[in-house]
Amino acid sequence: MAISKSKEYTTVTEVSGPLMVVDNVSGVAYGEVVEIKTPSGERRRGQVLEAQTNKAIVQVFEGTHDLDTDTTAVRFTGETMKIPVSVEMLGRVFNGTGTPIDGGPPIIPEKVLDIHGAPINPCAREFPRDFIETGISTIDGMNTLVRGQKLPIFSGAGLPHNELAAQIARQAKVRGKKEEFAVVFVAMGITHEEASFFIRDFERTGALEKAVLFLNLADDPAIERIITPRLGLTTAEYLAFEKDMHILVILTNLTNYCEALREIAAAREEVPGRRGYPGYMYTDLASIYERAGRIKEKKGSITQMPMLTMPDDDITHPIPDLTGYITEGQIVLSREFSRKGIYPPVDVLPCLSRLMQGGIGEGRTREDHADVNDQLYSAYAEGRKLRDLVAVVGEEALTELDRTYLAFSDRFEGEFMNQAIDEDRSIERTLEIAWNLLSMLPESELKRIDPECIKKYHPKYTKV
Amino acid sequence: MTQEGIISRVAGPVISAKNMRGTRMYELVRVGTERLIGEIIGLDEDTATIQVYEETGGVTPGEKVIPTGIPLSVELGPGLLGNIYDGIQRPLDLIKVQMGDFIKRGVEVPALERDKKWDFTPVAKKGETMGPGDILGVVQETKTIEHRILVPPDVAGKVVDISSKGKYTIEQTIAKIKTAEGVKEIQMLQKWPVRIGRPYAKKLDPSVPLITGQRVIDTFFPVAKGGTAAIPGPFGSGKTVVQQLLAKWADADIIVYIGCGERGNEMADVLREFPALEDPKTGEPLMNRTILIANTSNMPVAARDASVYTGMTLAEYYRDMGYDVALMADSTSRWAEAMREISGRLEEMPGEEGYPAYLASRLADFYERSGRAILHGKGEKVGSISVIGAVSPPGGDFSEPVTQNTLRITKVFWALDADLANKRHFPAINWLQSYSLYVDHVKDWWHKEVGAKWGEMRNEAMRLLQKESELQEIVQLVGPDTLPASDQAALDGAKSIREGFLMQNAFHKVDTYCPKEKQYRMLEILLKFNELMYKAIQKGASIGKIREMPVKDKLARMSTVPDAEYQKQFEEIEKEMAAQFREMEG
Asked: Using CA atoms, how far apart are residues B503 and B566, in angstroms rounded to an integer?
């Protein structure tokens, strides 16, 4: 079998979409990497999607244009897809297949790792509980992010998700600790403009030195997008679990990734699932998202912040839907608030952080945090409900208390949700604003807050 | 048949192999040079289609497939409790010891420890005639669970030898039974194929509720021991939190928790919490009555399909000993998706939304393995398996095939509602959409064990909530102030039940578990308040005044009164309530 590995085949019989069929082969393994030489001598890479006794179906990463069924040469390498990794990758920029594009020297690998990784044994996982302060009230106060979590941003076309992601990357910190922190930034099909926005922002704040960038841009081959996030995550795993660093992985934009997945599925003539996306999209997305986490007795961690644009702002679209079923919550941006000029336009009602309960409270943030959060949610939901009602019956029909709730939700949006793009609010400041707003309501309405916390933090009692 | 097959095609988790004549459906095979575990799921002439329970990257056509002659089976015996297994019953903690923090493939670890010695006490006597399900002896598996070693389902005859009291490993023979086919040696370690339900004598109608300590479940939509419940909901509506609460507090003897295609961090949470939490019934750590099956979403997809069967077979094994078992599967949609993925790779004709046509029958087969049953063996042993399956409908749309096919089978429907979750009303079980067909079955039990007004109170509360939803429609049009006082009182009454009773804080140390007597008293007091409120209004009292009553605050906080004090405090609340109404009217 060793002989076949160095053998070049020129037996391509079919090229269709991103796929290529090679006949009369032997000993081809499922998933192995393929090197392709185009008729013009250009080299490309691909991966075996299906191996048969004498036939292989190959997906070509850099696109199938120019390939022919005559002189195109194919060599099976016998290896799965791998990436060389090293701490020297910090501060560097790579393309979507892992080649440096910043003009710097090639990476001298400390290790070469399979990009598909392996699932973390649930027994080895440490439950994430370290509060990450992002300085953004709607996240810290109401949808707390913790180390090892995967918390996506559900956005829509034209909403400031890039600004928000950059702000989080800039401000995120675990308080009271000085630890190695780095960002792995993975771009899938975003525009040059968006990519340079991030690079500029990283440069401006000095974050670039502590960042690894993988860029598959909008004009790069779509199929390449399948491997780009895996390159980023493999690098992140190396830095986190072998070099003890805390890694924030920003993945943008998952919608483009899923489109590429659908393209391959369609080319393979697979039975489509919802809206033409393949039935295994859940499993495939899980193989990306589940690579976030912490491991017992290891210092480092991987926190993921994937971004996706919901087609037509539809949260039930398969891409946000399947993502929400895998990730530990979601931050949802809303067009309505963006139009009102609120930044960040986070609509807190459909937002959620599943790991919040373990990351807040006494000794982590503050003892009253959980109760205050509950109360904010219920009070704001009440205000929103009343706002709908007012639209029909007018404000006159409301009771005094109802009007207070309305005023509360207006101020909540203006003072709590709204903040400047460079404003880094501490959790104490966030809770202080929250208490100021809650003090508008009669004390008997604060049913979700422990009476002792009311005594301790309510402005009525703290202000002498 | 030990001839070897040759791999002819590899595509993801499905492979084809030639030269497989003589093998059977669902037979276990070892695939390729790494001896990966696979199962035959299709035969055509001499070609077998095999689903592989591990990653198939690097597997090459031409490699061998070795049939084993046995179907996919689980190991049964003492030592199961407190363990965490993957979908094909490999212990994850031992895999970690062998392989490190990441799960690599090709690992072979037995499910049960072979060297550990257990204290065996014989029950059977030499010369006794025994049949399937009879108890040969017992082993104290944990402090509270006595593991009964039973005569296997296919063995009957005279006991010719039984070991004396002492320490034995699970592989040592502890009894010999002379059957029609010769003398059979029985060990504590037994095996059973996962896709075949273990036999029982007769199914019974469920009549005892599974008490979960969750008010909306126990009082409004109860599930019976041996019953089935489905809990569908969009993401973020709290399926997993409810499932975990049930795993924590349900008054079953044994819990089997299947994390099927879900999050790794959630399993880590269970592993962190369960050893530290106490079983409210026995005071023992919860982990000691729990078996976890973890096949997270990024673990091989074929093993997801196996994981639900593995869990069910373990549940049946403990049921056969006469225990009440509760099985949670989170989430059955991931299992259905695994079926769809495998079916797609087999290029089968798809049914609705790409799911295979046999989706409905597979789901029905699975849920039908639940139930309360009289078991084989001497003495009327009764055991039960209650099944609670989470469903994750895409986009929260309950009309999709998995939800619909599940609802046709299960008797309880807890509809989780994204709107409620957004308002942080947890558990976000919608009281108008949900139903339980066990209400009439368990009524007598409640009336006998807790209080005679249970059924009546439940209906009254449901009526009130129904009325609220009707009134809400009017309020949406004209505002609340235009309603007559009695309707405003109904709205207030429903609100107090919603916020004071239905809502329950899973993260509050007292509120997370509400004893059944406390549930009964809470509802009694809330309804009593409503009654007094109606009477007062008929006598002309103003609704505004009633809203300002000091006791209302205490009513709203009843759920957090510690279990040890509630009886006294509730009596005081009742007295205050009566006094304040008297004062207002006087």
From this structure: 18
